[in-house]
Every structure is written in C-alpha cells, then in structure tokens.
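thought: fold this chain, then report.
action: predict
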Amino acid sequence: MNKEWSDLNKAMQQLLKKRDTFNEGIAALFRLRDELYNTMLSLREELSRGDFDAMPYPKAKGYHCKNIAYSLWHIFRIEDITANTLIADREQVFFTGDYQRRINSPIITTGNELSGDEIAGFTKVLDIGALYEYTSDVKQSTEDTLLGMDFDKLKTKIPTERREKLISLEVVSRSEDAFWLVDYWCGKDIRGLIQMPFSRHHIMHTEAMLRIRDGLSRRT
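observation:
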C-alpha cells in the first residue's frame, strides 16, 4: 500500500476515536480522499477511452484483475449506496441525478457479480465523462453528510429498516459474489463504514487502477 496514503489513513482512524480530535479526523479523511480522487482524475487526462476497458491482468487474484472503468463505477456505487441509503436515509445520487441513463449503464448494482468478459462488456458501453460526473457528485454528497455529523453519531448501527430498504432497491446483486455486502455493511457502525468504503476501499482500488495503467503496455 502507498505509504503516504497508508499513514494518512492510520492517522485518520486514530483521530476519529476521540471526541476532541474528531474534527481533525474528518479533515484528515478529506485530505486522503482528495489525494486519491486527484489520482483518479489524472487517469482521465492520461488515458484513451479504450484504456478504461483494458484488462492487462485478467487472471490476477487482486483488484487489478478488473479494469479502470469498472473500478470507478464500483468504488462510487458502493459509496453512494452506503452513504445515502444506509447512513443518511435519502435517495442515492445515482437515482436523483438520472445517472443510469447518463452513464448508459446496463446495471444499477455495485458490479461485484461481474467477472472476466462480463466486466469488459459492461464497461465498453459506459459514458466515461458521465461516470466521472457521477464520481464527483457522490464524493461531494458523502462529504456533505460527514461534515454535518457529530462524534456521537459514529457509534450508530445501521437500523434494520434501512437494511430492508437496501435489499428492496436491488442495488446489490443477489449473487453469492455480491449479496454478502448487505450483512457486511449493516454489521458496521458509521465509524466502520468510514474506515472501509469511504477510505481504505478507495486506497485499494486506486492502487489497483495504477497497476492497470502501468500494465497497459503489456497488451497485445
């Protein structure tokens, strides 16, 4: 893991544990997210449209077995779902912004259920410009939510009715490769969600995107 990102992530987690350093923790989280997001934006400047669909490591066991377009979709669908449906109890940016139509996506899920050729087929039809607009809107929405949160809210567990709402929206596939996410997210408190979908999850997939970028020259 990138040492700078790892160190900032660790510092953020420690700061969030105490009431008197909570605001510093949120600020550290936002710095981390900004650094990661700027890396994602740099890929848009560097790469061709076809590069976003390329899978130079299709047999790899890590996240770099996917492609960059999928990674962007996956990161921010998960964030949108957890931040809005589970924490804020409001409609997802995906729906309020009519992003399924704008991105031209055949799915509304996180994409966990897709593999191999399914991923390549999925991303080839996506509007990458609209996908980036979605990522920006979700990032801002999440951070607005966190700015309005106080320390005591961090220990809040996800209510049962929100878990049921999540299932009813069908934004998580019922495939065994995806549906485990429901229990995983709903078993966490808000601090736990901050520590995974909103930070560490971004780090892991951003590093995977950089590996994919660096492996593009291996394509035949």
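thought: worth noting. The mean pLDDT is 96.
final: tokens above.
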